[in-house]
Each structure stands twice: as C-alpha cells, then as structure tokens.
TrEMBL record:
Name by which UniProt lists this protein: Quinol monooxygenase YgiN
One GO MF term: monooxygenase activity
Pfam families documented for this protein: ABM
Signal peptide residues on this chain, from the entry's feature table: none
SUPFAM superfamilies noted in UniProt: Dimeric alpha+beta barrel
PROSITE patterns linked to this entry: ABM
Organism annotation: Kineococcus aurantiacus
Lineage of source species: Bacteria, Bacillati, Actinomycetota, Actinomycetes, Kineosporiales
Residue stretches making up the ABM domain: 3-93
C-alpha cells in the first residue's frame, strides 16, 4: 500500500538563505532511494520558516528502510543545521475509497 510521508520543518530564521540548497541536497538521496515515488517541497505562503516535504513511497516497508538509512552515518544529512523543529506524519493511501 502506498504511503505518504509529510515532513514538516520549522526553519531557523537565520538559515532561510541556506535552507533551499540543503533541502535540495537532502532530497537527491531521498528521491534516489529504492521505493521512493517522488517528493514535493511546499513553503507556507504566510510563514517562510514553515516547510512541508511530501514524500510518496511504494510501501510502509520502503519508507521504514529509508528512515533506518537516515539514522546511519551514511544517511546523515545537514537538515539539522537549518531546522529548529521537525515533525513526521505518515499516511496510507486508500485508492479503493
């Protein structure tokens, strides 16, 4: 079953200029990871520090493997240098409804 993962970021106000490059760099590995069906980056129209990254995964197992990868030294990224807070929410897609 397809999974949608929404990663909401609160960017540090003093990192707004660097954040797009670091997000782009991070998402290169995300998009290349097995089971990733795509990513979209959305910026809040009223709050420039609020970003939501919407990821689509083939399955919960693919997303779990990706999250495990990110917890390793090889999967580490620089998002922490530009974010004050992060929240991940995952949803299953029910095409039959």
């Amino acid at each position: 079953m397809t999974v949608i993962a929404i990663l909401e970021l609160t960017l540090k106000a003093d990192a707004l200029e660097q954040a797009p490059a670091i997000i782009t760099e991070t998402l290169q590995a995300t998009r290349a990871f097995a089971g990733n069906l795509g990513c979209e980056v959305t910026f809040d129209v009223t709050d420039p520090t609020h970003v939501a990254i919407v990821e689509r995964w083939e399955s919960l197992e693919a997303d779990d493997a990706y999250r495990a990868f990110r917890a390793t030294p090889e999967g580490a990224n620089r998002l922490g240098s530009v974010t004050a807070d992060r929240e991940l929410t995952r949803y299953t897609v029910h095409d039959d409804l």
